[in-house]
Amino acid sequence: MGTFGSLRRRAVATAATVGALALVVGCGGSDDSVTGGGKKDGKVTITMGLYGVMGIKETGLLEQYEKENPGVDIKAEIAGDEQTYYTALQTRLAAGKGLKDIQGIEIGRAKEITDTQADKFADFGDVKGTDHFLPWKESQISTGDGKVLGLGTDIGPMAVCYRKDYFEKAGLPTDREEVAKLWEGDWKKYVEVGRTFKKDFKGDGVAYMDAASGLFNAMIYGHPEQFYDDKGELIYDSNPVVKDAWGLAADAAEDGLTAKLRQFQPGWDPGLANGTFATAVCPAWMLSHISEKAGPANKGKWDVAKAPKGANWGGSFLGVVEQSPVKEEAKKLVAWLTAPEQQTHIFKEIGNIPSSRQALDSADVKGAKSEYFSDAPIGQIFGAAAQEIPDKQVLGRKDGTIKDTFSQGLTLIEQQGTARDKAWETTAERIEKAVG
User: Fold this and answer.
1) Measured distance CA(103)–CA(27) in Å, rounded
2) How far apart, in whole angstroms, are the C-alpha atoms of residue 187 and residue 183?
3) The pTM is what?
4) What's the pLDDT score for residue 152?
């Protein structure tokens, strides 16, 4: 039985992200270098550009690959903020230099990459042994003519992370199965529980949820279409899925149920450390961040319950730059890093849910529990959630940008008291300007 509780390697990830913005602006070798990788004196150097906690560097896999492949030297740099990372990646793709041999690609950027940068990335269609992924995962990084621009790492099935001690103080159930029944089948029930929490919580300074934007994301990503239709046309302003999510998230903000934060933005980490909110909608990859930032003092206070409805938020790919001087070696490394065994290893170490069907079916994933989150059976919870994710997920060129813009719009309601209609109007104007 696997156990997700050992965070001994998290310090490595923390150290790697120190100065991340400087890394993302200043890396890339000499001014004349395309990727910084190459072959010299019988040695192969492969460079990687990553972001966040993808588990590639933090879990010892790169050292293992180097040990098993003498003569290969891997240099990986990690940016803490994906948005900054992607802005830099776009600049470098346009310039044709300063890139890495292997580049991480977040799901919200996948459509833009496949539509506008397909010639800049190598095709994985000829790589053998890559038929183990969830069917919709590969389709997200494939072009219309069948070119596969990368291989999948993790996915983001959702649950709700909650503080048992705070639920007890509000007179609510603390058992994860009973908690899940409170909001089963409907995100409106989740918000209604928040109203009960606010009314009955015995204490001060604790909000029910961290951010209205987290609720918004959870709701929209449980449907096949969000911001674009399958013809590539923008539909966010007419899609009832988006309108309903905006309305409920605005309700939560206006009713004072949130801590007025944005996930992964300034204030959120201290909120975790200081216990200023009782719940957070949490895709699987978020658990490692929560456990790190909430710290040892809060171990066992957090638990994980099934979300009202299945949804996928996030997930990544690894692509190889077409101009890489070590393209074939980099493709081989990517195939190894995303193989079922390595995806299972990453899950066991930090909890990222595999995009590999074989890894999802493994005993190590199915039997995994989180020591930090009160021994929650995260393998079962997130594995079951993964099965509820719609088989078809329509991506658009500017999905990531639009998602970020909606988060900013909800923050206007939370932090500035802007009327929801005005906040929507401002958000729509920003989206039109951004996607132009």
Assistant:
1) 13
2) 7
3) 0.80
4) 96
**Residue ranges per structural domain of the chain:** 3-155+315-370, 156-313+372-435
Of the chain, the end-to-end C-alpha distance in Å amounts to 51
CB 301 within 8 A of CB 164: yes
Fold of 156-313+372-435: D-Maltodextrin-Binding Protein; domain 2 (3.40.190)
Question: Quick one: tokens of 58?
Answer: 């933090």
The domain 3-155+315-370 having CATH identifier 3.40.190.10: the answer here is yes
Going through 264-368 in order, the beta strands assigned E by DSSP cover: 277-283, 302-306, 312-320, 353-354
Q: Are the CB atoms for 290 and 161 separated by under 8 Å?
A: yes
Q: Measure the CA–CA gap between 210 and 12, rounded to whole angstroms.
A: 27
Position 350, amino acid: I
User: 403-413 burial, b if ≥16 CB within 10 A, otherwise e?
Assistant: bbbbbbbbbbb
Q: Do domains 3-155+315-370 and 156-313+372-435 have the same CATH topology?
A: yes
User: What pLDDT digit, counting tens, does each position of 367-422 carry?
Assistant: 999 999 999 999 999 988 988 887 778 888 898 899 999 999 999 999 999 999 99
Burial of 66: CB neighbours in 10 Å, binned 0-12, 13-18, 19+: middle
User: What are the angstrom distances between the C-alpha of 332 and each of 73, 146, 285, 318, 320?
Assistant: 14, 20, 25, 12, 10
> How many angstroms separate the CA atoms of 248 and 251, rounded?
5
Task: Say how far residue 22 (Cα) sits from the centre of its chain.
Answer: 22
The two tokens of residue 341 are 């065994």
Q: What is the mean pLDDT of residues 256-274?
A: 93
User: Which residue in this structure is represented by tokens 């074989």?
Assistant: 358
Q: SS3 string of 48-84?
A: EEEECCCCCCCCCHHHHHHHHCCCEEEEEEEECCHHH
Q: Exposed, middle or buried by CB within 10 Å (0-12, 13-18, 19+), for 37?
A: buried
Angle at CA of residue 215, ends 213 and 216, nearest 5°: 60
Strands 102-106 and 312-320, how do they pair? antiparallel
Query: Which 3 state secondary structure label does DSSP give 235?
Result: coil
Query: Which phi and psi (to 5°) does residue 329 adopt?
Result: -65, -40
Tell me the two tokens of residue 220: 């929209």
pLDDT in tens, 129-181: 889 998 788 889 999 899 999 999 999 999 999 999 999 999 999 999 999 99
Give the three-state DSSP class for 354.
Answer: strand
What is the rounded distance in angstroms from the CA atom of residue 345 to the CA atom of residue 173?
Answer: 34
Using alpha carbons, select from 130, 128, 123 the residue that is nearest to residue 149: 123
Tell me the one-letter amino acid at 345.
H
